[in-house]
Amino acid sequence: MTHADSIESALRHDRMIVLAALSALALVAWLYMIFEARAMDATGVCQCAGMAMSGPDVKPWAASAILPLFLMWAEMMVAMMIPSAAPMILTFAMVNRKRREQERPFVPTGLFLLGYLVVWSAFSFAAAVAQWALHGAALLSPMMKSSSPLLAGGLLMVAGIFQWTPWKHACLNHCRSPLQFPGGS
Fold first, then answer.
1. Domain shared by 140 and 176, yes or no
2. Rounded CA gap, 91 and 88, in Å?
3. Which are the contacts of 19, defined by CB distance < 8 A and separation ≥ 6?
4. Under 8 Å between Cβ of 140 and 149
5. What pLDDT digit, counting tens, does each position of 104-130 carry?
6. Which domain holds residue 158?
């Protein structure tokens, strides 16, 4: 079997390769999240930044805490969002395989996944900055519990109002029929 034949054989099993890679990525993120949670339960301190996560720590965190907060949010995002995105990523890989077989242009599945991770990483960064700022303003405890009834009520109202917006319905329409995206030419 030549090198080209072995590559072609592997490409025929792309679904299993993609599924194994996604599973491994999510598993590593979950294992690290479990490791961090156990360490935090034992010490009350986030091991990644030395930030006290329980007790009377109400003083603002240093700006250097944003990086570990971002990493925490990003790891949670990978652990939770990759499994939910797996069907779409596998569908994208299938469409790509067919496009390759027809010698049509295609986008590598890894690049598609990278785009997904970039978007969720941007969200993770925004969440980390928001958590850092809300903690600094004493509106959020280190364990992300609202310290302000006004903040909690305001967030609940915003979430409720969102339920009636056209934006929510547009999002749902696109989420309910995702095949329009990879199936398009």
1. no
2. 5
3. 86, 90
4. no
5. 888 888 899 999 999 999 999 999 999
6. 148-185
